[in-house]
Structure formats: structure tokens, C-alpha cells
Amino acid sequence: MTLVRTGDPLALIHLTDQALRVRAVEAASTYDAPTLVQVTQAYMTSGSRKGARTSPKTLAAYSLAVSDFVPWAQDQGVQLLRPGRRDGGRYVAHLQTRPSQGRGKTGTLSASTVAQYVAGARALYRALRWAGATEAQPFEDIHVPPDPTPGIVKNPPYMREIDEVLSHCDARLAALLLLCAHAGLRVSEALAAKVSDIQGTQLTVRGKGGKVRRIPLGKRVRMAVAGLSPAQIDGRLFDWSYHQAKYRMSLAFRAAGHGQTWRGFHAARKHSGTRLYRATKDFTRVGVFLGHASVDTTRRYVAMEENDVQHEVEDF
């Protein structure tokens, strides 16, 4: 049998079919969550639709979900390779009634968190099928009710906060905030931006799934990035990890008196989507700007003004 180094999920890809099946069956039979996480990651990076382009964020989310589901299954007497027809629904019910353990949060897990955990559990069973360990699909017909509160309401865009926070940022942190809030970048895209990606008034962005797009930079963003020297030898403008950037930005929000309104970088990206929609009234153009594959996604990034159609209905 080919030896696999512990903690190296990609090495599972190179096992023979029989060796992979044995490894997966053994892990499922003993409720070995770390190995089942490796099997899931190996499947996601070599057998799923996106393959090696699966984002690290998705891999991390699914790994957390598998690490949650496996101990629950063991405690509940669920045989992972031969689950009962109601076991998927039982797990969803468990998630929907579980108290939230997030800082400062009360009540039960949010609908989005429940959906994320179920997606990870589904990925585990696709991985076990890929490994030849089982054909069971206990989550195939499971429906996770959506959150009735729109995401744009739960996490609205920053608006006036942007300019107020900018005055409490150093030059590099200000450039990062403007890349998210005015250029509409995901924070991961902004942190990966290089000097060579900027040509005139446009920035080449390598986004989710390896998709490349070119976006226009407003003069305020251009001025902010033009004053920066590369922070890394490869020309990248930032040498921060996501958590380092998040910590610095949260301090800036706190210094500006908006510590309670800090909601992460995504609300800054929604700022750009909302402002561009108000200027264009065109979801398609906003979606292209933000790098969305679907206009339905774009709608979740735009805060609509109240009575936005008052003028149009006036003479009905």
C-alpha cells in the first residue's frame, strides 16, 4: 500500500483505488474525523466540479463542517457508511436548534451557518462515493430553509463610515479599504494585487475560480495605490494575511468611533455595488464590475433606496 503522510490530503489522490477505498472505509468505520476531512479535501481538489480551483475558504468551511458532523454521527449511533434514511434530517434539525457560540451572539445558528454545515456534510458523502466507500446519500433530499432576512439587511453596506474611517488609516490601509469600497474587490483579491496588475486606469484582478477581469479604478483609488511601494518582492502591494488586515481595519473603525459597526470587508464591497447601482440602475453592469457569475448574486450586494420608484409611479 502507498504510504500517506499524515496531514497531507493531496497525497490521497495518488493512492490506488483499492488503497483509497480501504483508507476511507477505515476512517468512516472508526469515526476518524481528521482523515475524513483529508478525504473530503482530496475529493474537492481532484474530483469536484472546480477541482484544484476550489477556494481555500471553501475547503476550510467544509473541513469545519465534516469535523462537526462526524462526532455528532458517532454520538447519535449513525453508521457513516450505512446511515438511516432520516439521519440527514436529524442532523439538520440538530443544527437548527443548536445555540450559537459566536462572540456576542444569542439564539440558534443562523440559516447560512446551517446551510454551510449541511453543504460540508454533503461534500463528505460525495467524497466517500468518490473513494468507493459507500453509495449512501443521506442529504440528497434534505432541504435547508433559507434565512427570511435578506443578507443586505443583516449585513448592509458601509456608507458614510468609509470616509470617516479613511482619516484614521495609514496610506497602505487606506488603499486596501478603497480597493474594497470603491473598486469593489474582495479582500482576498485586494491583498493579492500587484503593482504590475495596474495598467493606466485599470486593474487586472484574479478572482474566485481563477477568473480574470479588468476593472476601472477611480482617481481616488489610483492616487492611493500610486503612492505605495511594493510590500513584497513579487510586487504585491500588501504583506498582510487576511487576519492581520482584519485586525488593522477593525482598529481604524474603532478609532473613527465605528467600532460597533465594523462588519468585515464584505460590507465595503457592498458599498461599491450599492453606489454603482444608484449611478447606473443596471444590475448587469454592477455584476460585471464585482465579478459575479449571476445577477441574482449582485442583487444581494445592493441596498435599494426606500421608495426608489416613487417618481415612476407618480402618474400611474
Automatic annotation (TrEMBL):
What's the source species' lineage? Answer: Bacteria, Thermotogati, Deinococcota, Deinococci, Deinococcales
- Endoplasmic reticulum among keywords: no
Question: Per UniProt, what is one Pfam family of this protein?
Answer: Phage_integrase
Keywords tagged on the record: DNA integration, DNA recombination, DNA-binding
What are the protein's GO molecular function terms?
Answer: DNA binding
Q: What is this protein called?
A: Integrase
**Entry's InterPro entries?**
DNA_brk_join_enz, Integrase-like_cat_sf, Integrase_catalytic, Integrase_recombinase_N, Integrase_SAM-like_N, Tyrosine_recombinase_XerCD
Q: Record the organism.
A: Deinococcus arcticus
Q: Please indicate if the UniProt record lists DNA-binding as a keyword.
A: yes
A Gene Ontology annotation in the biological process aspect, one of them, is:
DNA recombination
Q: Which part of the chain is the Tyr recombinase domain?
A: 152-315
